[in-house]
Structure formats: structure tokens, C-alpha cells
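Q: What would this chain look like folded?
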Amino acid sequence: MADETRLRSYHQPLKHQMMAPKVSVKEALYPEPRQPKGVRPRTEGPFTLAEIHYGHSTRLRHERESKPRAYPAIIPLKDSPQSERWTSLNKPTYGTLNGIDYAATDELLIGVGRWPSKAIREATTTAYHGLLGATRRLGYEHLLRVWQFFPEIHREEEDLERYRSFCLARFEALEAFGFNMRHNLPAASALGSSGEDLWLIFIAGNGAMTPLENPNQVSAYNYPERYGPKSPSFSRAVRFKSPQHDVVFISGTASILGHETHAPNDIRRQCEITIDNLSTLLKTHHLQPLWQWGERAAFKIYLRQAKDQALMKECLKSWLHPSSRVIWLEADICRRDLLLEIEATLDLSGSSWHPTYT
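A: My prediction, written as C-alpha cells:
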């Protein structure tokens, strides 16, 4: 009975479970963007939109960065690049709004923010209200891709696993901003890190957004209640088309069939199922197979245990083109029994609009 009472409480408004926001959703849309001093426009591209540096858990920014930069505390694995850089041939505008550093072009917005994560539900609510308020205030119609990194992803907090608390707060924020929770959700990844903060990195855009699902998997937003009071709010992938871009953002993909984890302690089998999920997604939506993308693809591979990297490289050797970009990171996956996760950014337009790894 106590467990049933606790579960019902997670469906109720926040009230006493966390501090109520001091401003309404509507009010969050109106702060004027603040542009950092000293930014000088360049006269030729490509222009840096954002940089993400991994493994910098102790680095703090004492001055306002001129461009969005993130430092999630996730460790790059052996021989892996340690950072990623997003660029554009169009000169961006840089600024800060709702605690988020951003770079904006006519078609794309990239933003980066960091919040203390001691109380993950409260942190997620604050972060998402800031993110969604900023995208709306700056005039971008679609939230396309979100990366989320925070520590102790599996620890219980107020009788609920922190990842599930994060999913609950994310759902509530998206719903408050008018998302239909089915057909307009972004691609996403959520990983456990070290450090103390919740990092959010996101891409929004003006153009046509098409969510893509995998017939071998239950859509994440339709997961049964056994996975938490609210399902994870993301699409398996998103295709974004605009006059200058045609990009597919593939969410973190793992060894899940239907809604259940398969091969919980077998890294090789999990790798095979994950590759099959990625291949099925691409085939279903009439996209090229993994190995044909070459330099137009950028992959990010997360492993729960660094010791599995060599086996994973062997498993992936026949599936990934040698010229495709790959970054390897050690991180906690969203479920305890998942050992790996693979995500991708695929450039169909030849605009070179995908991350470079260094």
C-alpha cells in the first residue's frame, strides 16, 4: 500500500516535492537575450557554433564564453577524440538567454546550459523551462536534438531512481510548453556522468521536422509504467530538412526489442542487436545502410565499461565506414542492464553540417 501511495504521488503536480518555479511559462519567454562583450564577427566561414569537451569535470568557466561550450564529465576512451565542434557556413549570432549560451543562424540554434543536479527533478524542470523558453523567444519552431548528462543516474532520490525523476520532470516541462508527447518529440540521449552538474546541449531549427520510429521497438513515449511514472520523451530519430540542410539525428540506441532489454550481460550480443536496430531504422525510412555513409556520418558510442572497447571495435568493424567519425565515451547507460549505446548524426545534404571530432 505504501508503494502504491508513493507511485500515485509522482503523478501529482510538483507542489511540496520541489520548489515551484518563481515565474510562469509565459514569463520565461520574455527576457531579452544578452550578448557577451567582445564578440567580433568573422568575415569568412566556417563559423564555430558550439564546442563540447569531454572529461573536463573540474573545469569551471570564470568568464562568459564568446561561444557555447560544454564540459560534461564523461571520460573519452583509448585513442578516442576528446571534443566535438559544430560549425556553419552562415555567420551566427551569439548570446545568452535563460542561463543558456547559444549560437543562432536563420535555420539553426545550438544551446548549452549547466545546472546543479543535487535535486535532479528540480534541476531538470529549471533546465527545460529555460531551454524551451529560449527556443520560443528566439523564434525556432522545432526542438530537434537534446543531449543530457548528469551524475548518479541510477541512485534513488525521494524513492525514485534519478533517471526516472529526470524523465518525469522532462515530460512535465514539454507538456507545459504544448508538445503533444507523440509526434513532435526530439531525438535525445541521456547518460550518467561524474561531476556534480546537469549539462544540456540542444539543437533547434526552422524547417520541416519528421520523427522516425523503429518497428522493432516500442516507441519510448509508449513504454509501460514499469519504467517509471512517465515514459522517456523522445523520438528514435528525427529528420530535419530546410533550404540548406537535410540531417538525420539518431537518438541513443541500445539492445532493446519491444520495450525490454535483451542479452543483459553479453556485450557482443548487445552490440549486434543495437546494430540491427540502427539498420532497421534506416531501412524502414529508406535511408542508406550504416556502412555507406562514410564521412557524412558522425557516431558517438557510449560504453558502461572501458574494458569492452576492443570487443566493440571488432563487432563494429564491418558496419561502420572507415571514414565515418567516431568518438568513444565511458558513461552509465539509462538502464542498469544496458552495456552500450550508439547515436549518430547523418548528413544527407552534403552541407558538412555534422560534428567534427578532435
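The helical segments are 2-9, 25-28, 120-137, 162-176, 267-284, 309-316.
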